[in-house]
């Protein structure tokens, strides 16, 4: 895990906002008052109504006042059977906080240490499990709305960004920006709906807070209690309005379902269940899930509590998918092989973590649930991001997540912008591409969208890394490959030729010249007139640098010649007319540093013929 920020938020680096402001993932503001469902009348909500079906709300006794020691439990029965066991919840020292009758799940609160064991003996109860190892916050019973941040206007104009270019989103926009009838749910820390780049596409009517496990539809309950959800939302669908940034699918609608709780920013199972049920009932074609369900990094079926968590969240995901909603989720930032699990040292993260031995039967929720698209992260050069989890048979597709000094640039609360890195940032790229597929194919089911993501992805072979198992077409680092937004909108582009890359770092010292070589073989004839040279050079003050491509016969093609002054890093794909050169042979990237004080490295580079 990365020490800066817990991997439950699949983000490995802190955001740096525009205008010189630094925005960390700070402790969030207060949370909204929970309400049972958006269809419940105000009177029913204030009386503590509980949901007995997706569209029917009945009166129930209000939850007891909060007391120290209040814990949350999932009580699982047959779908349609919650009313038959809700009385036993009360008689065994608990209260019904929320009820999802369509999937047979009750969210119960109790201060009794014997509540779970007593409920397991009740006829009709299939499973009972505690969802946390800490008390439910008092805030659950009388929460405050999140802050509505003051907005800063921006002078930033839209420009091509490496992440959008990498998935061909910039080319896709010329074909389609997506349909306004497609709704994408951001299940996260909330979204700043007032942001100048999000407001044009924000769907308040289908936004809510699901913190604590039941929906609160008050205006603003969906707002961000951190920065993470707003950043994710911008990557999916920031408006194409000339300001700041453009999302992958800038024509679709964004809805916020805040599932993070204030202060802790934790995402407990009942919150995720509420979010998935909301997604299904509100017509979300896609949801993005850049988190894991707290407090367990992995939930194990041989643990009685965690087994109930697995079953409850699984049922909610199946319900959402059955209603037409595809879930996309981040794989995580621990550089962990999800196909070969051995230990978990991060759980439980709401009390005192312990190191425990686990097996592959233990799963990361929601990303390893059946039907969920599991997304790994790529660096700017296309390689696996250093932090990204992996696993043959687990990873479905890959997308830009950033690495090191190169992050994903997107929206931040208060009209700001900044960069973050993580599988949190990769997942919304895939959610955006899925939204484009749904826009182009309105009748597609979630399974068909999921299949198209893989079919259209660009194959990425394993690098020289023994941890990467599988084939060129499907492996543990990239799944079925890197998603392609242009193919998603039905656009056509000439198929790429042979691809070669060098990921070995080469240090660039002051007043020195260094080279990195790629040996090309198996290509017939000469190089093309549109040879693509992908360059990832990490170096402060790039005005010091001259960068050349050297052909096998020694011919020099200058890519960059001491421009950019104090700008940091060269992360760019250059097009070179190399049609006079024989393709096969040793090509070199030559970097010449012409001044003192600033050093760096060739991080990666590639050739596409």
Automatic annotation (TrEMBL):
Gene3D superfamilies: Galactose-binding domain-like, Peptidase S8/S53 domain. Residues 1-26 form the signal peptide. GO terms for cellular component: cytoplasm; endomembrane system; membrane. InterPro entries: Galactose-bd-like_sf, P_dom, Peptidase_S8/S53_dom, Peptidase_S8/S53_dom_sf, Peptidase_S8_Asp-AS, Peptidase_S8_His-AS, Peptidase_S8_Ser-AS, Peptidase_S8_subtilisin-rel. Pfam families: P_proprotein, Peptidase_S8. The active site is at residues 188, 228, 424. PROSITE patterns: P_HOMO_B (PS51829), SUBTILASE (PS51892), SUBTILASE_ASP (PS00136), SUBTILASE_HIS (PS00137), SUBTILASE_SER (PS00138). GO terms for molecular function: serine-type endopeptidase activity. The keyword Signal applies. Residues 493-609 form the P/Homo B domain. Keywords: Hydrolase, Protease, Serine protease, Signal. One of its GO terms (biological process) is protein processing. Belongs to the peptidase S8 family. This is Secreted subtilisin protease.
């Amino acid at each position: 895990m990365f020490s800066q920020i817990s991997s439950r938020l699949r983000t490995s680096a802190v955001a740096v906002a525009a205008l010189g402001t630094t925005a960390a993932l700070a402790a969030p503001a207060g949370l909204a008052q929970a309400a049972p469902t958006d269809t419940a009348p105000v009177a029913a909500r204030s009386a503590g109504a509980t949901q007995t079906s997706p569209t029917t709300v009945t009166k129930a006794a209000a939850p007891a006042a909060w007391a120290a020691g209040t814990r949350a439990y999932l009580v699982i029965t047959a779908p349609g059977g919650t009313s038959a066991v809700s009385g036993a919840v009360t008689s065994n020292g608990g209260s019904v906080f929320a009820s999802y009758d369509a999937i047979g799940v009750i969210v119960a609160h109790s201060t009794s240490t014997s509540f779970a064991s007593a409920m397991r003996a009740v006829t009709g109860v299939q499973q009972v499990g505690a969802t946390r190892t800490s008390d439910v916050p008092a805030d659950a019973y009388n929460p405050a709305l999140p802050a509505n941040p003051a907005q800063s206007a921006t002078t930033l104009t839209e420009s091509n960004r490496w992440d959008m270019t990498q998935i061909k989103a910039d080319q896709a926009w010329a074909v389609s920006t997506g349909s306004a009838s497609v709704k994408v749910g951001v299940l996260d820390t909330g979204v700043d709906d007032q942001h100048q780049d999000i407001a044009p596409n924000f769907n308040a009517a289908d936004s809510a807070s699901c913190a604590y496990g039941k929906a609160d539809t008050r205006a603003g309950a969906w707002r961000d209690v951190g920065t993470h959800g707003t950043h994710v939302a911008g990557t999916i669908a920031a408006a194409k309005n000339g300001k700041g940034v453009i999302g992958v699918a800038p024509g679709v609608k964004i809805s916020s379902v805040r599932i993070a709780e204030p202060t802790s920013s934790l995402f407990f199972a009942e919150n995720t269940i509420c979010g998935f049920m909301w997604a299904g009932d509100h017509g979300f074609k896609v949801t993005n899930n850049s988190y894991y369900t707290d407090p367990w990094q992995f939930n194990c079926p041989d643990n009685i509590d965690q087994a109930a968590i697995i079953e409850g969240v699984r049922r909610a995901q199946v319900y959402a998918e059955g209603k037409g909603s595809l879930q996309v989720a981040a794989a995580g930032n621990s550089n962990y092989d999800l196909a070969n699990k051995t230990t978990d040292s991060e759980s439980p993260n709401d009390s005192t973590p312990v190191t425990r031995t686990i097996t592959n039967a233990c799963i990361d929720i929601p990303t390893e649930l059946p039907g969920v698209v599991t997304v790994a992260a790529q660096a700017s050069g296309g390689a696996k991001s250093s932090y990204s989890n992996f696993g043959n048979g687990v990873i479905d597709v890959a997308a830009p997540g950033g690495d090191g000094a190169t992050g994903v640039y997107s929206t931040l609360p208060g009209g700001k912008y900044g960069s973050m890195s993580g599988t949190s940032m990769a997942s919304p790229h895939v959610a955006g591409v899925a939204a484009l597929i749904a826009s182009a194919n309105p009748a597609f089911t979630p399974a068909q969208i999921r299949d198209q993501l893989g079919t259209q992805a660009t194959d990425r072979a394993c690098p020289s890394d023994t941890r990467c198992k599988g084939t060129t077409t499907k492996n543990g680092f990239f799944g079925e490959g890197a998603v392609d937004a242009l193919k998603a909108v039905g656009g056509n582009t000439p198929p790429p030729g042979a691809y070669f890359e060098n990921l070995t770092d080469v240090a660039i010292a002051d007043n020195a010249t260094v080279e990195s070589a790629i040996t090309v073989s198996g290509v017939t004839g000469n190089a093309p007139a549109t040879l693509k040279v992908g360059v990832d050079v990490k170096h402060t003050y790039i005005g010091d640098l001259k960068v050349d491509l050297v052909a096998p016969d020694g011919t020099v093609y200058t890519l960059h010649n001491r421009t950019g002054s104090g700008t940091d890093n060269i992360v760019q794909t250059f097009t070179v007319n190399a049609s006079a050169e024989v393709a096969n042979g040793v090509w070199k990237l030559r970097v010449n540093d012409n001044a003192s004080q600033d050093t760096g490295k060739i991080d990666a580079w590639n050739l596409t013929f």
